[in-house]
Specification:
The strands form two sheets. Strands 1, 2, 3, 4, 5, 6, 9 and 10 form an eight-stranded mixed sheet that branches. This protein has a two-stranded antiparallel ribbon with strand order 7-8. It contains seven helices and ten strands. It has two domains: 10-189, Ribonuclease E inhibitor RraA/RraA-like (Glucose Oxidase, domain 1); 193-239, no CATH class. Strand 9 and strand 10 form a beta hairpin. The chain is α/β, with parallel strands linked by helices.
Length: 240
């Protein structure tokens, strides 16, 4: 159902794997996008690897007693069916409305996602069966854990449609980058602009760090004055 998932070019994935989510928020801020960091989506595992993928969206709404039942797990519109539609390399982004007392996925579903080579799960909700989820080795960004099943507080209604996750508008096939600072959304239409600017920002800030390590004060360095800019340009030329 919804929009067909698209693959992500491996060169794009490689480049963005070297860019922090902090840098991406700064680059997107310069483009006028302030609301791109998914609130509540924190890494479940310690010291997570930075991951990149196209968003495969899933959406929950408040629980309705005639729909949110264990029997619904066998429905054609279910989280189980959605997982079978996930392509390898995607990041599952789940709108759980910030609900923290009903786990949207558990160990079995996360294990199946790993078998399908899903890159990660990102949600503003929580998971359950924490030991099994960690054992599945599926990287997860969420608000934590809860024992009750999803139907205790949520009704699953669909996948691959626009959602709100952590207060951010996420469209299918947008790009998600997730690391220790959380998860950031890059609108698909801005990807070609964002990548070169983000790579340059990383290079520039790496140079700033080297200058700080030399003992230089920040005023005039960050942000740079004309003299600092000239030194940076000279440094870049030396690296070529």
């Amino acid at each position: 159902m919804g929009i067909d998932p698209l693959p992500l070019d491996e060169e794009i994935r490689r480049k963005l794997s070297g860019v922090t989510t902090a840098t991406l928020t700064t680059v997107l801020l310069k483009k006028g996008l302030r609301n791109v960091w998914l609130r509540g989506a924190r890494p479940l595992q310690a010291h997570p690897q930075r991951l990149v993928g196209r968003a495969f969206t899933l959406r929950f709404v408040p629980a309705r007693e005639d729909l949110a039942t264990p029997a619904s797990w066998g429905s054609p519109i279910s989280t189980r069916a959605a997982i079978e539609a996930m392509p390898a390399g995607c990041i599952a982004v789940v709108d759980a409305m910030g609900v923290t007392d009903a786990g949207i996925f558990g160990d079995i579903l996360c294990s199946r996602m790993m078998k399908r080579e899903v890159t990660a799960l990102v949600t503003d909700g929580v998971v359950r069966d924490i030991e099994g989820v960690l054992g599945s080795q599926l990287p997860v960004w969420c608000q934590g854990t809860a024992a009750p099943a999803s139907v205790a507080g949520l009704t699953f209604v669909g996948w691959q449609e626009p959602i709100a996750c952590g207060g951010v508008a996420v469209f299918p096939n947008d790009i998600v980058v997730a690391d220790a600072d959380g998860a950031v959304l890059i609108p698909a239409g801005l990807l070609a602009e964002v990548i070169p600017e983000a790579l340059e920002q990383e290079r520039f800030e790496g140079w700033i760090m080297s200058e700080v390590a030399r003992g230089l004060p920040l005023p005039g360095l960050y942000p740079p004055n004309e003299e600092a800019k000239a030194r940076y340009v000279a440094w870049v030329k030396q690296q070529a």
